[in-house]
Amino acid sequence: MSALSLRLPESLHRKVRELAEREDVSINQFIATAVAEKMSALLTIDYLEQRAKRGSRAHFLAMLRGV
Questions:
Q1: Which residues contact 6 (CB under 8 A, 6 or more apart)?
Q2: Rounded to 10 degrees, what is the CA torsion of 36, 54, 56, 49?
Q3: Which of 6, 32, 38, 49 would you call most buried, defined as having the most Cβ atoms within 10 angstroms of its Cβ?
Q4: What letter does residue 25 receive in the DSSP assignment?
Q5: How confident is the model at residue 1 (pLDDT cuts 50, 70, 90)?
Q6: Burial class for 40, CB neighbours closer than 10 Å (0-12, 13-18, 19+)
Q7: Which residues, at least 6 apart from 23, have a Cβ–Cβ distance to it below 8 Å?
Q8: Alpha-carbon gap, residue 8 to 5, rounded angstroms
């Protein structure tokens, strides 16, 4: 595991602390989970864009006609 020095505005740090306490996790775990969730969202967008490039409107319409 690696260490990362992170500078946050005091207001953001305060809110992260409050939310981490509410979730009963450490600030470190809260931030790690938030980063993982953001990465997942961005990677999902990348995946869907790549899948969309392989798509074909004609093929889609043909599949609909078969339903």
A1: 31
A2: 30
A3: 32
A4: S
A5: confident
A6: exposed
A7: 30
A8: 10
How confident is the model over 27-48, as pLDDT tens digits? Answer: 999 999 999 999 999 999 999 9
Task: Please report, for residues 5, 46, 47, the alpha-carbon distance to residue 25 in angstroms, rounded to integers and kept in the order given.
Answer: 19, 30, 31
First to last CA, the chain: 51
Using only C-alpha atoms, the chain has a radius of gyration, in whole angstroms, of: 21
Residue showing tokens 């889609």: 60
Tokens of 56: 């074909």
Question: Encoding tokens for residue 59?
Answer: 């093929």
